[in-house]
Write a structure and sequence with these properties.
The complex is a heterotrimer. By secondary structure, chain A is mainly α. Chain A is built from 11 helices and 2 strands; from the N terminus they run H-H-H-H-E-E-H-H-H-H-H-H-H. Chain B folds into 2 domains: 162 residues, Rossmann fold, CATH 3.40.50.300; 78 residues, no CATH class. In chain B, the strands form 2 sheets. Chain B has a 6-stranded mixed sheet, sandwiched between helices. The longest helix of chain B has 14 residues. The radius of gyration of chain B is 18 Å and the shape is globular. By secondary structure, chain C is mostly helical. Chain C has a domain of 211 residues. Helix content of chain C is 78%, strand content 1%. Chain C starts with a helix and ends with a helix. The chains are: A mainly alpha, B alpha/beta, C mainly alpha. Chains in contact: A-C, B-C. The interface between A and C is large, with 47 and 43 residues.
Chain lengths: 286, 247, 309
């Protein structure tokens, strides 16, 4: 019984992290039709920036905020300087993001070295909490809470603000959105920065659980892809539900069938692609 | 005798908006049918449904009695259906001849041959040139598509459709954007198509294509408003309403 | 004039091991393998218009299968090579079926995800793949009893296979099927309306491309006598794609030239400068922005312009 509780809680915290990663990717792809292969690297460099900030100011939340901001700025520059000139060239944009991901990965290696660097959770969260008779790290539950709050915040943004309405319009029908005068290029930059910020902050928040290490980007990117394929492109609900489904499968798979955990991730992806290609909550493209 | 094309209760909606609204049509073999209607009437959507480019929400389509509603587009081509496009969709990097060759290959067994060089198939290439000759482009066969005029491209479209030896030929606004002279040329072409091919034509402007048609169907907002012979439809007051917006 | 140039090149390639020296002969063998790999990817990317970032899956699968059969079951090369090829081709058939539910970016993402699943499995399934240690202690085959351990011998072996493979691919491209494939790249809806089964054309091409990728994989494991999960990495797929794009997708010579450039760059750079990844990324970005058509078409244009003067 203990086993199930622990693994379920592990899944929930991993799901929260995946959501922070996948939500940005899904929004960027849904609105801008850019498969941002840099996204894993943004997560990773966020974590590393968090490491450096923590050495100066031992406050994880501040590090997350500043890390998210730094990555958002980087993302904004990437979007304006490299991706915008390639508008209409979907393949070119993908390749550029791929190239940037390699550059960022090596950059991190140069600056922070090859050893994994753990980030420390805030001391008041390092004590375990009792959940259902099981001691579980409090920090991981807080991560889940952060993800839920972020999801609610994003939902509020999308449903109740003008920007959110514009994003939704753009995801649903870009030509129409342009036709009614939505300032598309500013919106693009905003969404890209938002997605990057989520990834960067997510990397810092994931730090105490996953550490910052070379290869973190390559580990996270396929998970983000699978979540978005499963949940549907451009759908926050899809990213949310998909993140937890994948987290559960991955966590339990890693424990029950450690050798083949990755292969088990296959299965929901194949099922979705075969029977519901636009994902669980994706929209039919118009 | 089965009608060449039989459509029954066809429906297609886009996000709640019905583009095709319970359309039923019967086109007997050999007939020249003109489908007209103002912009947005759903004419091209109807063609897309017939060819399978779009999947219908409801209704049935029969080709010579055989139900094709669930068939993929390439399967419908193999049953004798061919079409031209309102917006020219030729293969831009290739010659006129290669465009027609691709059309001929669509129904030929040799399209699965992955070893023999295509250019050695002289029979195929001669046939392509012959068909281009039928539309008056025999001399231009070796030219790349990029180098021929818009009117000539329209004729290539028709050549490609004829290359499929269709039993039912759908022409989507074949006269659009052409000069008077070019239009006369295309009309002669269409007149010259043998009667064992059923021809269904979309045109936006009634006057230009009227003399090509045996019967006319008028569409508006995805519905059939009027149907009958040329004279019947021209005389029908509802036709004028559709175009003047009193409907 | 053109024939003279080609003849000279052929002669150079034929006698190179006589004066090249071990290092360069080995490098040439690696170039042949990379060229074959890139050419197989090009069938999909250049001629089919389907960009895959999962091509490394074929090298990895074929290499690991051959290595495992040899080390764990003691199967000799003559037996394990066909099994490796068949298994990889079957997986290509499966992956192709999955990935071709989409096209464009969806296809790209799915191929990436599928290859990454294999990559992750290669690390974790240590009982089979030996995880991060990789599988070593492999040997090269000895066709007709001839040893391939010397660089020159392996060079000619690889060259022969590469020539046959490229010749078959050239015929594929020039065939009616190849023309239909290009048609589906340019106007898929039109092709369907003309009677072509677009999905089937693409799927067959995917499987065929995977088969040649598997052949490259066998040559790879024979050359290195070692296989490691990095063979399956995104970086590996990206290098192949870069070779195709840099050289010029949609031409036969392009990927060969591009793969050669990428490999030479990688070897040179690794000698002086540790950060190959960074350079790879930079080259990607620069090529996309400045030379989107690739080197071979660019050179061709330059040649035409020069002749016109």
């Amino acid at each position: 019984m203990q086993f199930w509780i622990i693994q379920t809680l592990n899944s929930l915290s991993l799901g929260g992290l995946l959501f922070l990663l996948a939500a940005g990717f899904s929004l960027i792809f849904g609105l801008m039709r850019i498969a941002n292969l840099t996204h894993g690297s943004l997560f990773m460099i966020g974590a590393y920036v968090g490491v450096t900030i923590l050495r100066l100011v031992p406050n994880l939340w501040l590090a997350a905020l500043l890390g998210g901001l730094a990555v958002a700025i980087f993302g904004g520059l990437l979007e304006r300087l490299l991706l915008r000139p390639l508008a209409g060239n979907a393949l070119g944009q993908v390749l550029v993001t791929l190239g940037i991901s390699f550059i960022v990965a090596d950059f991190c290696l140069i600056v922070w070295g090859g050893d994994p660097i753990p980030l420390s959770a805030p001391s008041y969260l390092q004590k375990p909490l009792l959940v259902g008779g099981v001691a579980f790290p409090a920090y991981r539950l807080v991560v889940l809470a952060i993800a839920i709050v972020t999801a609610i915040g994003l939902h509020a943004l999308m449903e109740w603000t003008r920007i959110g309405a514009m994003i939704r319009a753009g995801v649903d029908d870009m030509p129409m959105a342009r036709a009614v005068g939505i300032p598309v290029s500013r919106l693009f930059t905003f969404v890209f920065c938002l997605g990057a910020a989520l990834a960067g902050a997510g990397g810092v928040i994931a730090g105490p659980i996953m550490s910052a290490y070379p290869g973190l980007d390559a580990d996270m990117l396929p998970l983000a892809l699978i979540v978005v394929i499963l949940g549907g492109v451009g759908s926050l609900l899809g990213a949310f539900v998909g993140s937890f489904i994948i987290a559960v499968i991955y966590t339990f798979g890693s424990v029950l069938l450690p050798d083949l955990a990755y292969v088990i991730l296959f299965l929901p992806m194949i099922a979705v692609i075969a029977y519901r290609p636009r994902g669980l909550f994706g929209r039919q493209p118009s | 005798m089965n009608p060449a094309l039989q459509i029954h209760g066809l429906k297609k909606a886009f996000g709640g908006l019905p583009a095709t609204n319970n359309v039923s049509l019967d086109v007997p073999a050999g007939e020249r049918r003109l489908i007209i209607g103002p912009n947005g009437a759903g004419k091209t959507t109807l063609f897309n449904l017939i060819t399978g480019a779009l999947r219908a929400d409801a209704g049935a389509i029969r080709l010579f009695g055989e139900e094709i509603t669930r068939l993929a587009p390439h399967q419908r081509a193999h049953r004798g259906l061919a079409r031209t496009y309102q917006i020219i969709t030729l293969f831009p990097r290739d010659t006129l001849e290669h465009n027609v060759v691709l059309s001929l290959l669509g129904l030929a067994k040799s399209r699965w041959n992955a070893f023999r060089a295509l250019r050695t198939d002289t029979v195929l290439h001669e046939e392509a040139r012959r068909i281009l000759g039928l539309v008056g482009l025999g001399e231009r066969a070796a030219r790349p598509i990029g180098e021929v005029s818009y009117g000539e491209k329209r004729r290539v479209e028709i050549a490609m459709a004829l290359a499929q030896r269709p039993k039912v030929l759908l022409l989507d606004e074949p006269l659009a954007g052409l000069s008077r002279e070019e239009r006369a040329g295309i009309k002669t072409l269409i007149h010259g198509i043998a009667r064992d091919v059923t021809v269904i034509m979309i045109e936006h402007d009634m006057d230009t294509a009227l003399d090509l048609a045996d019967r006319v169907t008028v569409l508006h907002y995805g519905k059939v408003i009027v149907e009958g012979t040329r004279t019947e439809v021209v005389a029908d007051p509802r036709t004028r309403e559709v175009y003047l917006g009193n409907a | 004039m053109k024939w003279l140039a080609w003849g000279a090149l052929a002669l150079l390639v034929a006698v190179f091991p006589l004066f090249g020296g071990d290092f360069y002969v080995n490098l040439a063998s690696q170039i042949f393998i990379a060229a074959l790999f890139a050419a197989s990817l090009n069938l999909l990317v250049g001629y089919g218009g389907l960009v895959s970032l999962g091509h490394a899956a074929w090298i990895g699968l074929a290499a690991y299968t051959s290595a495992w059969l040899y080390l764990r079951l003691g199967l000799p090369h003559l037996a394990n090579a066909p099994i490796a090829l068949i298994l990889t081709t079957l997986v290509a058939a499966l992956f192709g079926w999955i990935a071709l539910h989409a096209s464009g970016l969806g296809f790209l993402m799915i191929t990436l995800a599928l290859a990454q699943v294999l990559w992750g499995t290669a690390y974790r399934w240590a009982s089979v793949t030996n995880g991060d240690n990789g599988l070593s202690g492999l040997t090269r085959p000895a066709p007709f009893g001839m040893s391939l351990d010397k660089p020159a011998a392996f060079y000619y072996f690889t060259l022969a296979i590469a020539i046959v493979a490229l010749w078959l691919m050239a015929r594929f491209v020039a065939s009616p099927f190849g023309a239909a494939l290009r048609g589906t790249r340019d106007e898929p809806r039109r092709m369907a309306a003309l009677g072509h089964n677009v999905w089937l054309v693409r799927w067959i091409t995917f499987v065929y491309s995977g088969f040649w990728g598997a052949v490259a994989g066998l040559l790879y494991v024979y050359y290195h006598k070692y296989v490691h999960p990095t063979t399956l990495s995104l970086q590996s797929s990206a290098e192949a794609l870069l070779g195709v794009i840099a050289g010029g997708a949609g031409t036969l010579a392009g990927p060969v030239v591009g793969a050669a450039i990428v490999l030479i760059l990688k070897n040179y750079v690794s000698a002086y400068f540790e950060r190959w990844n960074m350079l790879l990324g930079l080259v990607f970005v620069l090529i996309v922005i400045f030379m989107p058509d690739g080197v071979v078409p660019g050179l061709r244009r330059a040649w035409v312009r020069l002749r016109a003067k």
